[in-house]
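Journal club prep — side note

Before the paper discussion, L.F. wants everyone to see what a predicted structure for a comparable chain looks like in token form. Sequence:
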Amino acid sequence: MQQTSSDRHEYPAHWEADVVLRDGGTARVRPITADDAERLVSFYEQVSDESKYYRFFAPYPRLSAKDVHRFTHHDFVDRVGLAATVGGEFIATVRYDRISADGRAASAPADEAEVAFLVQDAHQGRGVASALLEHIAAVARERGIRRFAAEVLPANNKMIKVFTDAGYTQKRSFEDGVVRLEFDLEPTDRSLAVQRAREQRAEARSVRRLLVPGSVAVVGVGRTPGGVGRSVLDNIRDAGFTGSLYAVNKALPEEQKDLDGVPAYRSVRDIDGPVDLVVVAVPVEHVPEVVTECGEHGVQGLVVVTAGYAESGPEGRERQRELVRHARTYGMRIIGPNAFGVINTAADVRLNASLAPEMPRPGRIGLFAQSGAIGIALLSRLHRRGGGVTGVTGVSTFVSSGNRADVSGNDVLQYWYDDPDTDVALMYLESIGNPRKFTRLARRTAAAKPLVVVQGAGSAPQGHAVRATRLPHATVSALLRQAGVIRVETITELVDTGLLLARQPLPGGARVAILGNSESLGLLTYDACLSEGLRPLVPLDLTTAATAADFHRALSEALADETCDAVVVTAIPAVGEGPAEDAALAEALRSAAEEVPGKPVLVVHVELGGLAEALSAAMSTAPQAVSKRGDPQRPAERPPTAAQAPEGAGLIPAYPAAERAVRALAEAVKYAQWRREAVDPGRVPEYEDIDEKGAAGLIGGLLARGQGLTLGVDETCDLLGKYGVDVHRALPAPTPEDAAEAARTLGYPVALKATAPHLRHRADLGGVRLDLADEDQLLRAYAELGELFGTPEELRPVVQRMAPRGVDTVVRAVIDPAAGAVLSFGLAGAASQLLGDTAHRLIPVTDREAASLIRSIRTAPLLFGWRGSTPVDTPALEELMLRVSRLVDDHPEVVAVALEPVVVAAHGLSVLGASVRVAPPPVRDDLGPRTLPVY
């Protein structure tokens, strides 16, 4: 849309945004322009007289031509209006006018504005005003406005609540029968908390509308069996969907009213009554027409299984963008396109709107997969009852997002967070579209329930628009683990770990008891525990003559032993054993675990299909048998199993290999430790000697010279010094005489270093001479370096005061545009550069996180007295990292810091090399108003 030439600024397209409202629907927020006159008049005519009175403090039945001109002509600086739209029509408006201290119209530098809202009555209570307040506040801050004022009638409780609940710092007064509210627009911890709580509720409800529909229509159903649309319709019907189901095909004869007993229509418009969810399975060229029909009928969401979008190339990518824009115009959300579908096994829903021909059993595991093929593999693994990991619980919900044009893993996480039917979340992610938000949501979710993730490496597949990250894959994985995510490498590990967490308690520690009837299998399990960092006890061999009673007694004793935190039972078949013996052993193990609850139990079985099936018993994830009418069969009608466990019992997962069982247990141990530590994450300490204002002034002056620059040595030392980081200065030595003068200035002993790029931090190449006690040794070393590596111009030699001996480490911080600020630590040299032994934490880092950061690298023992060496001053190292974290957190313009080497001695440390880069910081969308991603 264009604004008139008399306006002071171009139309600010970047203010446009899609938002999720409180009830899960969506709306479009955009600036109001002169072209909106008719929309504004139409909108105002639909507002009640009471709402008009609250807005204008007097009866105001209609807008005059002058009003319409005023409310549609803005300069986008001192006068701004935003509208929330659905279907292209206004449902709410907000505007601000910049005012002076005496309340008159003003321009900058005045930093206060008067704000006013009007929401159509039919849309009140949907959170529209709260969303508009977030967006108009962000616009105002961008235009230099720091404070809003609003005058509200005392009876207008809804609007007063919008302002008071927003979380901003505010003042309230009452004059002349009007409530006057003034509040600062700077985000506060409370305003961010309010915003994120609203975001969670809204996004969770938007996903719930897709997973818990009261009515479903499948568009594109063939008149004969076969085809995608007909398959989805059959799957929904056969699963026993509890709501209303409709078939839609525009080619149906007018006299045909059903398809295999399902009401059939030529168009969604023809359906009498609401339709909550539509599965779109028509050719790609017909999808826009279907979207329009759905939007006009009030459909809440779409599952688009149709392919031919971004996965097919540039033209398809543009079709996909238009599909999202089109659907959001009507307030609808989309799963897909190119989606496999969704499943909800809840007894009051029973929805299988997917291409999966069988409905998984109800259970406590939530599944999300961006890939349809991986989604099929996940469901298949969970269905198995033998030959692989034993299914011990079922699925609560399943979402395969396809091209993930709209609904993403973040949205599903918001739903799972407070979903009472989901205890464990399993996710396969080919890409993470918003790593900063995903990490925040994952941390909150993991504090309540386990979140297990497989992340595909490499670039995102076609159709997945993601933010660019410069962080290595291993670094992203480490950050996910810091957020409590259980990060595994394969689909097999995903299922193995998820099944353990779904039905077994978390272990209290890493001590593992091992018992069974095979000494060899017990020793394999013991070795696997050692490899995974667990603390196994000596295996108990019950011998091959052990009976079910022997297993029961041994397991009961192990669970009662206070020196163990988990038990792995190993079992091999005896000659002549059959299903009855398998069932007896399964019952013996299950009853022992029930008698002494609180510790996880796992079974490693070899060629005991019957045992695996008996352990899974009644709560397996085997497909649920369904009658032809779509009703689940009664338990007596289902195929019998070797043994039936009572509903809700703590079922024991069984694994065909010791390594798989132990790896799953190790992940549970690490997750349990994270849960315990998350209760008290530590604090970000304050240091009295930090000069935050001085650093800000220095950075501002530096940035005034350019958009981004790497600081010189003196500037680096000055900036770091303001945060209490002392850098040992290195003086340039272009000649032998300069080297001698520098040494006299610093005082002997000194070090002589070559700082050319190919020699820097490469002591192994011989470009460093240490402990030079006098001028003769210094000049001799200078000559040797020249003979080995060339002229001083090629060497770039420097002289530096010797530091106490210690362990060389490296501390780095970087601001990644996608993940945010990251602090990294490792030992200098081969350990970090060659072996990748580096640990990472998100900034700001707490004192507990700094301590764990040091201890999480594999070479950490070198810092703590390995093989009789002197332990180094790790508290000083922790303080250094905390100070660097504070610097980057306080000043996001500091986009990179590298301290290398940092020599940590028995007492204190020395920073021998440092570099700092400053630049305008990347835009942080997590601090702005709530918006849906735009791809």
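L.F.'s comment for the group: The two ends are 20 Å apart (CA to CA). Keep this in mind when we get to the figures.
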